[in-house]
C-alpha cells in the first residue's frame, strides 16, 4: 500500500461550472495491475515520477509511458488502460476529477485522433497546484471546497494557455500567460535548436542574442522557469526520445546530438527521465 494516500470527495455543486469533485495524491509502493478506466467526470492526472504506462481510446492504441512532470487530461467517458504490472519502484501521482470542463473550453485541447491531451510541466507548477488541492481536501474536507476550487481554476488556466508542441502534446509556460514568450526567449530557443548537435555555453547564447550572460540568465529564467542550458538539455533528450522511437541505435543518436558517446547519452537520459533508454523503449512497447 502507498505510504501516502490522500483522497477527498466534495459534495456536488450543481450551480458551479466547472466544479471540483475530487482530489487525490498517492506516494509509495503501488499495486501491480492492469486497470481499465472510464470516468463520468473530467480527469487531470499527473505523475511526479516515471511510473507505468497508459493507452487511450482503444486496446489497439500504442502504450505511452507515464513520464515525470507530465499530466494527462481525459474528457468524461474516455476509455483508458493503466498498466503498472512491470513496476517495482515507488509511485507518486496526483489528480483532479471535475465537471464542467467543456464550459471552461477544454474541448479545444482534445483531438478526435488521440482523445486526450498531454501537458509537459517542466517547472512543476501544475503538479504542485493539483497536489495542494488534495492537501486542502485532506485538511478541511468539504469545508475546503472553495479553497481547492481556486486551485482547479489555476490548473485550468495553465492548461488553456499551454503552448502546442505536437499532436496531443502541450507545454506549460512559467506563468501560464498566453503568448508570454518574448523575442529573447524565441531567439534563444531557435539558436539552441539550430545548434542542438554542437557544444555551447551560456556565453555563446548570450553573444548571439546580444545581452550579457547575467542578463540572459535572469530574464530567461524569469520567463521560462529554467536556465538556457536546462532548455538545451531538455530539447536534446526530447530529440533523443523521438529518434529512439523511430528505431535509431543509441550510438547514432549520441553522434547526432553531440554527446561524446552512447554511455554519456544513456547516463543523461536516465538522470532526467528516471529510466534508461532501453527501459524507455520497453515501456513504450518497442
How would you describe what is shown here?
- It is a single chain.
- The chain has 286 residues and is an alpha+beta fold.
- It has two domains: 4-171, Regulatory protein AraC (Jelly Rolls, Sandwich), CATH 2.60.120; 183-283, Homeodomain-like (Arc Repressor Mutant, subunit A, Orthogonal Bundle).
- Helix content is 38%, strand content 22%.
- The protein has helices at residues 125-140, 145-160, 183-194, 202-209, 213-224, 228-245, 250-256, 262-273, 277-283; strands at 4-9, 19-28, 34-38, 42-47, 53-56, 64-65, 70-74, 79-83, 91-99, 117-120, 163-166, 169-171.
- The protein has an eight-stranded mixed β-sheet, with helices on one face. A four-stranded antiparallel β-sheet has the order 3-8-5-6, with no helix packed on it.
- The longest helix has 18 residues, at 228-245.
- The chain starts with a strand and ends with a helix.
- The mean pLDDT is 89.
Amino acid at each position: 500500500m502507498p505510504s501516502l494516500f490522500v483522497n477527498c470527495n466534495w459534495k456536488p455543486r450543481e450551480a458551479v461550472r466547472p466544479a471540483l469533485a475530487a482530489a487525490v495524491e498517492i506516494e509509495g509502493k503501488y499495486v501491480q495491475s492492469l486497470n481499465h478506466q472510464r470516468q463520468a467526470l473530467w480527469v487531470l492526472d499527473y505523475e511526479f515520477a516515471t511510473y507505468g504506462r497508459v493507452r487511450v481510446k482503444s486496446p489497439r492504441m500504442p502504450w505511452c509511458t507515464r513520464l515525470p512532470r507530465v499530466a494527462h487530461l481525459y474528457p468524461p467517458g474516455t476509455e483508458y488502460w493503466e498498466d503498472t504490472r512491470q513496476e517495482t519502484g515507488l509511485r507518486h501521482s496526483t489528480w483532479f476529477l471535475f465537471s464542467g470542463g467543456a464550459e471552461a473550453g477544454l474541448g479545444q485541447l482534445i483531438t478526435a485522433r488521440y482523445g486526450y491531451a498531454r501537458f509537459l510541466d517542466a517547472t512543476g507548477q501544475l503538479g504542485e497546484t493539483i497536489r495542494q488541492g488534495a492537501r486542502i481536501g485532506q485538511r478541511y474536507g468539504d469545508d475546503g471546497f472553495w479553497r481547492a476550487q481556486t486551485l482547479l481554476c489555476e490548473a485550468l488556466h495553465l492548461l488553456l494557455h499551454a503552448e502546442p508542441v505536437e499532436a496531443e502534446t502541450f507545454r506549460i509556460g512559467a506563468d501560464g500567460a498566453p503568448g508570454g514568450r518574448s523575442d529573447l526567449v524565441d531567439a534563444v530557443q531557435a539558436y539552441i535548436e539550430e545548434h542542438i548537435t554542437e557544444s555551447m555555453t551560456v556565453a555563446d547564447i548570450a553573444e548571439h542574442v546580444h545581452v550579457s550572460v547575467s542578463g540572459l540568465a535572469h530574464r530567461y529564467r524569469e520567463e521560462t522557469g529554467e536556465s538556457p542550458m536546462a532548455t538545451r538539455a531538455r530539447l536534446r533528450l526530447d530529440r533523443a526520445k523521438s529518434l529512439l522511437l523511430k528505431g535509431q541505435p543509441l550510438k547514432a543518436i549520441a553522434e547526432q546530438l553531440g554527446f561524446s558517446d552512447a554511455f554519456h547519452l544513456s547516463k543523461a537520459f536516465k538522470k532526467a527521465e528516471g529510466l534508461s533508454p532501453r527501459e524507455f523503449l520497453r515501456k513504450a512497447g518497442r
